[in-house]
């Protein structure tokens, strides 16, 4: 084999060495998933079809990753395995398909009737939230879920499925411009589709029941809960749309906006990288009463960078938790022990200049904090303890470290808004490697995903910039927003001017790959 210059040979060796490490990591994940299914089959635990489907998806994701990295190690030698894997996945999906006519499935389900076994109907996000409220007994917002059957009805009523399938199959998935154009076309189809009368009546009736129970007509949050979202092995974190503070008269429009976000560029890139099919991911939508939060944020029941560190990490900011989740605002950090009761062992109080609040009309507003409040902690010790206790309780129930979104309402009560398995990085597994011993240009800051990377620096501020982003470049953004995820297969590292560890991290880790990502902080 002609390797050209020594530099080319070194680059080729490093690329294939990296592929080998990722291949071995994917193999280990596949074996872990198979072992988990075998343990469940012994009969010592209760599980339903949601467990079977999620583990089959996780195994399929890992095996697809193995095939992809085998192909990278030996180009043109293992390409036929993609077709073989697709046939196997098709047979598995046929065996797991829900039987019975689709029209018999409910279009909406009350929150009070949802638990972890409802994932096939309402998606993992809403199923987890229902489990937290109805089984664990923690406080969650009242509301309902608009099911995957509703999404199927929306597409079927306008006969969109054949057109969507054709557009996806004929697009060139290797070019960002094609992904962005395809995304725009597919989202437009869904947003412009009329909501069938049967579905509109079901959503309206569910909202009226919610209003009657609250003795008011609340604004609601419309949140994505796609089948497979927030499940082990397929997070999709932050890649779909959320509509906050929606009024009753705009429910149907907001529903279509969230449903259409199934086809955002970042979600489609994630789906393609994972080897998932479009029909494996029906878009369910949660409709829950808005919480007028005094403060909010995210709690991790472990350290994302070190699985051996079992302390609870809380990121908090005044106002709505979206400020922390999106990584656009400065946030306080509290680290608590796991003893009973948890105690604060570290705290870092940020200087906070603004908060997100509910707009009196609809949507959100950015509100300046008084100078006297900017350096005050978002939580007192007792509030931090109660948030940590809730997060630990959720982890014990689900049996996995958790990533919990929470809010404190105006009465100081902890309200759980979302809980998903925590994505953790194992030191030494994957990660980019710096070649040649060159001195780093940037170090320190807030490390979101460890590693090193080198390449031309390209700043992306607008969607048009994304279309010109080259292979092998360092992606520089103002905020690590999920919408830039479509660029990650081309980037070697990410630098964000603002943001923190609790935001929806813009790293290849969300795509099952590894990439250094840092925010100067």
Protein model, in words:
The protein is an alpha+beta fold and 521 residues long. It folds into 4 domains: 83 residues; 188 residues, Dna Ligase, domain 1; 127 residues, 2-Layer Sandwich (D-amino Acid Aminotransferase, Chain A, domain 1); 74 residues, 3-Layer(bba) Sandwich (Glucose Oxidase, domain 1). Helices cover 38% and strands 17% of the residues. The chain has 13 helices and 18 strands. Helix 1 runs antiparallel to helix 2, helix 2 runs antiparallel to helix 3 and helix 7 runs antiparallel to helix 9. It is globular. About 3% of the residues have low confidence.
Q: Could you give the topology of this structure?
A:
Elements: H1 6-41, H2 49-73, H3 80-96, E1 108-110, H4 119-136, E2 143-146, H5 148-157, H6 161-170, H7 176-192, H8 197-214, E3 220-224, E4 242-246, H9 251-260, H10 265-274, E5 285-289, E6 295-300, E7 312-318, H11 322-325, E8 332-336, E9 344-348, E10 354-358, E11 364-368, H12 381-398, E12 402-408, E13 414-421, E14 446-449, E15 457-459, H13 463-467, E16 473-477, E17 491-496, E18 517-519
Parallel strand pairs: 15-16, 16-17, 17-18
Antiparallel strand pairs: 1-2, 2-5, 3-4, 3-5, 6-7, 6-12, 7-8, 8-9, 10-11, 12-13, 14-18
Helix pairs in contact: 1-2, 2-3, 7-9
Task: Give a concise summary.
The protein is built from 13 helices and 18 strands.
